[in-house]
Amino acid sequence: MSDQVWKALGEVIADVVAPQAQPVDEQGAFPSEAVEALAEAGVLGATVPTAAGGMGFGLADAARIVDLLSQSCGSTAMVTMMHFAAVPVLAAHGPREIVDSIAAGRHLSTLAFSEAGSRSHFWAPVSTAAPAEDDRIVLDARKSWVTSAGHADSYVWSSRPLAADGPMTLWFVPAATTGVRVAGPFDGLGLRGNGSRPVHATQATIPRSAMLGADGTGLDLAMQLTLPWFLVLNAAFSVGLAEATVREAVSHLTTARLEHLDQTLADQPTVRRDIGLMRLHTDTARAMLSDTVTAVEAGRDEAGLRVLEVAVAAETAIAVTDLAMKACGGAAFRKDLGIERRFRDARAARVMAPTTDQLTDFVARLSCGMPMLAGA
């Protein structure tokens, strides 16, 4: 069955994702057709554990999927990545009928962590959850940037705890919940089709049974089940962007000619240096991504540190796309080459919560024997 999924993924990328990448970017349109095709191909349900009715694809397979999608369309890759990041906590603690729907490709989810009040400090939500009559819970929140907002079927939602100690509690929140609304458009520099929009909750009522895990344990669940997938897949997203950029740049630089010299642009030493740096940066990030996945799946002692360190891939994608813009010159500014789109898309990973600055500080804190989060 897994071979069929990989074959189907390749066909979806070739027939739907790649052809629509430029229109999705130009129009700022959610890649609905691509997401539907991925669902029909079994890709969106592939990471649900076999015990819950899925195919049990692990982190390595998920990273490969995001990498391949990112090489064609950053927006489609980001939508898929955020769905994959939501799946582990839903598979462990979510409603069984929802997990079944995810496994069957009938349900798209995403994370709703970042908030206007605490911005990229996802571990410190200011939104609230309060008990109400009939064992109900009332949510109030101003979520700032939620990928697939208005298109996802549900959100893995963070709030302050009801009563327990701890920084946050997680909830399963159907997108159709009364009082939950998309609160603005998205017209961004890059990833223009990923639907990353604010979502607000005003006296939104959900059952207490929608709690994922125990009250107050949301950060622990996020750190164990969500953050490793989010960070590793974000790195795979960045590596895919870098890989595609190198490919596009080399194709252009080895065919465009300086006719008066009867040479290609790649015959110029300064251009070749840029190509070499792009290749080195990309291969280094890919090697680190591979080692991180291996560390996580093998349960190595340094796995947690590697998950934080692999954020370097975001900076790699920025460096590679910047080099490609320089090496390819004016041609890189054209829409048809695809480099300027990837240049814009690459900037997103740097500012997504937790930002690369925050992740670098986490690495430094752990290296110094300090708690990862201030005040912990």
How would the blueprint of this fold be written?
Elements: H1 2-27, H2 32-40, H3 59-72, H4 74-93, H5 96-103, E1 109-112, E2 128-132, E3 136-146, E4 154-159, E5 169-174, E6 180-182, E7 197-207, E8 211-212, H6 218-253, E9 257-258, E10 263-264, H7 269-298, H8 303-309, H9 312-328, H10 339-346, H11 348-351, H12 356-367
Parallel strand pairs: 1-4
Antiparallel strand pairs: 2-3, 3-7, 4-5, 5-8, 6-7, 9-10
Q: Which descriptors would you attach to this protein?
A:
single chain; 376 residues; alpha+beta; 4-stranded mixed beta sheet
Descriptive account of the structure:
With 376 residues, this protein is of the alpha+beta class. The chain contains twelve helices and ten strands. A four-stranded mixed β-sheet has the order 1-4-5-8. A four-stranded antiparallel β-sheet has the order 2-3-7-6, with no helix packed on it. A hairpin with a 4-residue loop joins strand 9 and strand 10. Helix 1 packs antiparallel against helix 2, helix 6 runs antiparallel to helix 7 and helix 7 runs antiparallel to helix 8.
Question: How would you sum up this structure in a few lines?
Answer:
The protein is an alpha+beta fold and 376 residues long. The protein is built from twelve helices and ten strands.
